[in-house]
Design brief:
The chain is of the alpha/beta class and about 450 residues long. It has 2 domains: about 1-220, Carbamate kinase (3-Layer(aba) Sandwich); about 295-435, VC0802-like, CATH 3.30.2130. The protein has helices at about 15-25, 40-55, 55-80, 80-100, 110-135, 155-170, 200-210, 245-250, 260-265, 320-330, 355-365, 390-400, 425-435; strands at about 1-5, 30-35, 140, 175-180, 185, 190-195, 215-220, 240, 270-275, 285-290, 300-310, 340, 345-350, 370-380, 405-410, 415-420. The strands form 3 sheets. The chain has an 8-stranded mixed β-sheet with strand order 3-4-2-1-7-9-10-8, sandwiched between helices. Strands 12-13-11-14-16-15 form a 6-stranded antiparallel β-sheet. The longest helix has 25 residues, at about 110-135. GO terms for molecular function: aspartate kinase activity; ATP binding.
């Protein structure tokens, strides 16, 4: 069995959804198809939820009506027969009735999660209506019936495995199963989600749960590129990556893949393919356990970084200093991306400032605290890059005119990361493209 995930742009227009139906019926393999919400829907739902949280109900009503109009038009173009249109209308009626009812309800976080789930629920149900009209047998497996997270927001793979196997076993002989990405139930049984980009995560978790032959992530780009094509003119897709290389790239800014989606596939050694819905004939990128040779594979950039420097003359003699610093970030569940130390200071970076004020307050007793906002981490990723002198030489020759804030070297053999002010991001990516790949 395979798992095929299609992102928002892959199902964002009726003709795209119709193309997806052709892709999933191209062979007779048994498959679970994971769909994101239609492109733009989650952003619209976030805006609706934001308006409700601020008590702006008239504004929320206008946003709901606008989104509903989009779905009415979408359905008219998606299905043509009377029965199909009636089914599609009933689905849209149901979900937008819910969104209109919540205008009369006091807003809370649980309601917010219900609002955000509507996009995936709509896309999968409407896709099933289209498949039925097209005469393609398929079964809808509601993600809320099997996808769950524990009290620490971690997926419960053993439970997912059992529940999913039971659901599939009820449909002997079926080859195509449709389910939602992103959404799940939490430890309280409430509707929740796997955070933004979580449809990739859903696909990988499902792949792990069913021990899939492979997981396919279908997007609007032909695989992982060696650099950001939005910034650099000349880039190329990478044929093969190891799980370690892909994880580094995803975490440090490659947008094509959600960072969390690597570890379930890696843990169960399930190949992941990154493919292009718009160019299904393109080879794309395959991610497997073993690397395909040494050298630089790609460059990724992660924006919105905050650098925090804690300077203390007591550090030299302070046993357990770093442990105490890290415990503060652990307390507020804030991951650290990079770290450098000296005898009198430690610098770290974070990309989540939700608890920044509390963290800074608890850091004050340790010494002087300095902040640098609007930083960018640029990562050079590839097998053994940190252990190859020629690569290091080319890297620093290329960025000799770029002011560096921090360097992370030696933490991984597959990654060298530098921290720069965000204003130098584009120039850095461009000079590295030339210096490491010979591309202007």
């Amino acid at each position: 069995m395979k798992v095929l995930k299609f992102g928002g742009t892959s199902v964002g227009k009726p003709e795209r959804m119709q193309s997806v139906s052709q892709l999933i019926t191209a062979d007779n393999d048994q498959k679970i198809v994971v769909l994101s919400a239609l492109s733009g829907t989650t952003n619209s739902l976030v805006e609706i939820s934001q308006s409700l949280s601020e008590g702006k109900k008239e504004q929320a009503k206008q946003q709901i009506d606008k989104l509903e109009s989009h779905y009415r038009t979408f359905c008219n173009d998606l299905v043509k027969k009377e029965a199909g249109r009636a089914n599609a209308k009933a689905i849209v009626d149901e979900h937008f009735e819910f969104l209109n009812i919540i205008l009369k309800i006091s807003f809370n976080e649980a309601l917010n999660k219900d609002i955000l789930a509507q996009g995936e629920l709509l896309s999968t149900r409407l896709f099933c209506v289209y498949l039925e009209e097209a005469g393609i047998p398929a079964v809808l497996l509601p993600a809320l019936d099997f996808m769950s997270i524990d009290e620490y927001e971690e997926p419960e793979i053993p439970k997912i495995k059992i529940k999913l196997a039971n659901l599939i076993s009820q449909h002997k002989g079926q080859h195509i199963f449709i389910t939602q990405g992103y959404i799940c139930r939490n430890a309280r049984g409430e509707v929740d989600n796997l955070k933004r980009g979580g449809s990739d995560y859903s696909a990988s978790l499902i792949g792990a749960a069913i021990q899939a032959d492979e997981v396919q992530i279908w997007t609007d780009i032909d695989g992982m590129h060696n650099n950001d094509p939005r910034v650099v003119k000349k880039t190329f897709p990478i044929d093969q990556l190891s799980f370690d290389e892909a994880a580094e790239l995803a975490y440090f800014g490659a947008k094509i893949l959600h960072p969390a989606s690597i570890w379930p596939a890696q843990h169960f050694n399930i190949p992941v393919k990154l493919l292009n819905t718009m160019q299904p004939e393109a080879k794309g990128t395959i991610i497997t356990e073993m690397p395909n040779g040494n050298g630089v594979k790609a460059i990724a950039a992660k924006d919105g970084i905050i650098a925090i420097k804690i300077k203390s003359s007591r550090m030299l003699l302070a046993y357990g200093f770093l442990r105490k610093i890290f415990e503060i970030f652990e307390k507020y569940r804030t991951p650290i991306d990079m770290i450098t130390t000296s005898e009198v200071a430690v610098s770290i970076t974070i990309d989540n400032q939700q608890y920044l004020d509390q963290i800074l307050k608890e850091l004050q007793p340790f010494g002087t605290v300095e902040l640098d906002y609007h930083q960018t981490i640029v990562s050079i990723v590839g097998n053994e890059v940190a252990a190859t002198p020629s690569i290091i030489t080319k890297l620093f020759d290329a960025i000799e005119e770029i002011p560096l804030r921090m360097i992370s070297y030696g933490g991984s053999r597959h990654n060298i990361s530098i921290l720069i002010n965000g204003q130098f991001k584009e120039k850095t990516l461009q000079v590295l493209n030339k210096g490491l790949f010979g591309l202007e």
